[in-house]
Amino acid sequence: MRRITHALAALGLATAALTAMGTGSAGAADGSWANCPSGAVCIYPQNQNPAVSPTDVYYSYGAHNLSNQYGNHWVLNNQTGGAHAHLCRGSGGRDCVYDIPAQNGVYYDLGPINSITLDRP
How far apart are CA 100 and CA 43, in angstroms? Predict the structure, then answer.
């Protein structure tokens, strides 16, 4: 529960900072959010807070294995139509431990995370 509360508080602060900086937010005219294109899930560099420029952008449904991702990263789910993203400990989308609903993000330690899935609603 403490981790979720921390993540929600950090998301709120980052969203406020992004709005104040004018770098974009959910609902921008082009649908981008913190430079994460509409329909995508984005991972940002370690400890980049607020999330400004993603290093990894995923569009296709299914599992995507991660490599060399350590420490805390913003993961933003800017998919449309209610699609979810899941952070998973195993490769190939196995042992998923965190669900990110559409139009949400989380500041999460990706050290133990080996894959991310993009799932249709």
Answer: 12
pLDDT in tens, 7-26: 444 444 444 334 333 333 44
For the entire predicted model, the pTM comes to: 0.76
Three-state DSSP state, 33: strand
Identify the sign of the CA torsion 116, 108, 68, 26: positive
Q: Are 85 and 119 in contact (CB under 8 A)?
A: yes
Residue pair 51/18 in contact (Cβ under 8 Å)? The answer is yes
Sequence-distant (≥ 6) Cβ neighbours of residue 33 within 8 angstroms: 24, 25, 26, 27, 76, 78, 103
Query: CATH for 2-119, among 1.20.1250.20, 2.60.20.30, 3.20.20.70, 2.40.170.20?
Result: 2.60.20.30
Q: Which residues contact 24 (CB under 8 A, 6 or more apart)?
A: 18, 32, 33, 34, 35
